[in-house]
Here is the input.
Amino acid sequence: MTVTQQKLANVFDVKDLNVYYGSALAVKNVTMAIPERQITAFIGPSGCGKSTVLRCFNRTNDLIPGARVEGKLTYHGKDLYAPNVDPVSVRRRIGMVFQKPNPFPKTIYDNVAYGPRVLGMKVNLDEVVETCLKKAALWDEVKDKLRDSGQSLSGGQQQRLCIARALAVKPDVILMDEPCSALDPISTRRIEELMKELKRDYTIVIVTHNMQQASRVSDMTAFFSVELQGSHRVGELMEYDRTEVIFNSPVKEATRDYVEGRFG
Amino acid sequence: MTTLQETDLDLSSASISPLRNYTGKVLTVLSGVFVAIIVIPLAIVLWDVAKEGVHRLNWQTLTQTRFPPPGLSEGGFGHAIVGTLMVLATAATLSFPFGVLAAVYLSEFGRGSKLAYFVKFSCNVLTGVPAIICGLFAYAVAVQGRGFSAFSGGVALAVLMLPIVIRSTEEALLLVPQDLRLASIGIGSTRFQTTMRIVLPTAAPGIVTGLILALARSAGEAAPLLFTAFNNNFWSTNLFGPVATLPVMTYFFAIIPYRPQQELAWAGALVLLAIVLIASLISRFVVYKTKL
Here is the structure.
């Protein structure tokens, strides 16, 4: 296999994905391919279904009663919604970082060690905790207080702790659902730098409301839009391309309006 | 833009309509009065029990293990304290596991299901069942044919506590942020692991408080024990024989016309209050200690 072929390899292939909550269609006709070791950003107005699509990738939508997925979603060629797929093992490979930092009410050490422990991974926990905290650019700040509560950290540190916690189970994809929306600009900048570091080893998909953020960090950008169908709103993938294309020369009028701030 | 009038810039309380000012003050006073109405009887009860109970509150009363014969002032109620603890231990052993597990089902696994609804409904009904009915139930189940026993007293109190345990535990579990469950599941742990390692430890202080308050609530019940644990004038640690308990002793001694026995009843009431108070303090302490 040549280098170029490897670069083009896709982690996720999505084809004609429809997501329903109960009988209501939430997102329709999503077709896209997420490339390996790249950062893919989902942008779009509220209610357009970016988070919904993101949650399909590690099947956290399963936890919402009534949520249902149609279409095909493959991960390294394997159907994520095949009947023999266990969502628990999916989530082990595809980690998630949430909008609000949500460290467990445990020590910093135990937060990171939680994943390896519950999965029964036979690893040197001290080592895993140290490497993951280093990868998450948090080690220097917390190495002397690993026994302190994870919730005693600042918001930005908590979010990096959550990233370290996700890395500890050795995933190959990290999904981030507006990871910086609860953080100040300096913490945001640190997380963005971190994402660029992490993309050497991981595939990252990020949902963001911040278009500058998408243009700064991502390689690919997907623009989702929302349309009214009767009384309820249905999200839709409008355009998906390399980030510079989306921001500089988008094909669709709606995309141009949105990235230039002329919408609504 | 509209031009500002002088009256728009009046930021003193005079600019608020007198009725609003007045109503606010009246309601503040009113709520103060109601607080007093709640607190004063409580203080009187505590003061009365302390004043009357302290006469006989001495080492002999606490350690002697036989009730005095009518009219005599020897003896004490050490065995009634032990009996109360035996009955409470039995009640806790029976109700805590069932109650906590039922609450875990309601909050973690069966949320929104028909069964959960049914369990909650039964729980609400059970909350309204009078204590004496719980005693009758335990009498029918555990006493008839076997005789009075500490165990049957425990059964009666367990029935009484069960709905309180379920509801307080469920409330503690519902307070655990959904984010934490998602975070745990997002790492690839199962729901069982999430419940055991994240949800229960996070809710533990709240759960423990609920358990101890349920225990404290049932510690003072005399009615369900009258025909289950019954009473015993002498020392007994036989779980399957009748034992003396503080509430029942207080009841019996308060209604007989001998001064020493009445004093003993007061002292018993005081000890009962102290047990409840200490239990509440311990639960507060546990909450404080485990808060990370």
